[in-house]
Give the backbone structure.
Amino acid sequence: MKYIDEYRNPELINKLCASIKKIADKPYIFMEVCGGHTMAIQRFGIPSLLPSTIKLISGPGCPVCVTDTSYIDHLTALGQLDKTIICTFGDLIRVPGSYTSLDKAKAAGADIRVVLSSLDALKIATENPKQNVVFAAIGFETTSPGTAVAVLEAEQMNLNNFSILSAHKIMPPAMKAIVEDGVKINGYICPGHVSTIAGSAMYEEVCRDFGLGCVISGFEPLDILHSIHMLLVQLKNNDPKVEIQYKRAVKPNGNKKAKKIMDQVFVAVDGKWRGLGSIKRSVLKLRPQYYKYDAEHQFSVSFKTKEPDKGCICGEILKGKKSPSDCILFAQNCRPENPVGACMVSNEGACQSYFKYHQYGK
Ligand code: SF4
């Protein structure tokens, strides 16, 4: 298939759904760990196409949602420093920290700018040599190679006013933590974009240690249904394995060049995820030889992080233990225009996707 329409072909979708219905003769729960999949699943109404025996739940796949409150607090504290520009992706700017968010800090006078990439932040640094530019480096393997390139370019240009605050994350440790926390699932629908960089091998440990099938999926309706079908076939054959459904984009070894650059610049350390707490070797920090570009090492700021707002169950949603409609604030006090938690802020957040595609916004 070549064109998007073909991945939305009603005839093929009906055939696949009939086949899924045939195999799904008992209850199964599959978790998607990619914000793009969360949105696509709701947008295309995938749950309504599935038999009642199959339940899809969202995990910690939205990069903005999994960013811990303490990170926002750290960034806003950095934004209070003299001659400092904070560069951030758009979604992050509205995520509430303990006391404020980046957009409120901006309204109060901090120099906070929305950028589309780490290289935009680097450009701002070259254009403002008398100011320190801190790039809010968040996301999974889809964005971390870009941050690594910005650090290497800053080094090449001998820039002294560019740094990053890294909360980059890798997915498999969180996938393991969720199962270890007792969440019962029968398989993972694995991220598409992350896997174009990282490849499929990184899921082998999850599959081997927990006997869970992992299928890397594309984002169109047929992709997602096909991935569910593949997981069901694995279960039927009692043969959990790592498979790539999204073959038009993902290769087993991923993008070797991007992985090499990431390895050169970053090292995985224990770090915090919203809702999941600290997870071993799950957060990417700069290696010591790049501390010159690490805002954590360059600037000393103090900040306090308090417990999240009462009522927000983002953490439980990110673990797959609850769904947005379980939250008493959902679509009442918490709406996209007035979000209480990160899951309602982000375009890839479970709460926003439910709000958007379940008619709450009408
Ligand atoms: Fe948090 Fe709002 Fe989602 Fe409730 S609806 S869990 S308050 S983000």
Notes: Residues 221-236 form the longest helix (16 residues). The pocket of iron/sulfur cluster is lined by residues 311-314, 317, 324, 327, 329-330, 334, 340-341, 343-344, 351 (CB under 6 Å). Residues 314-357 form one domain.
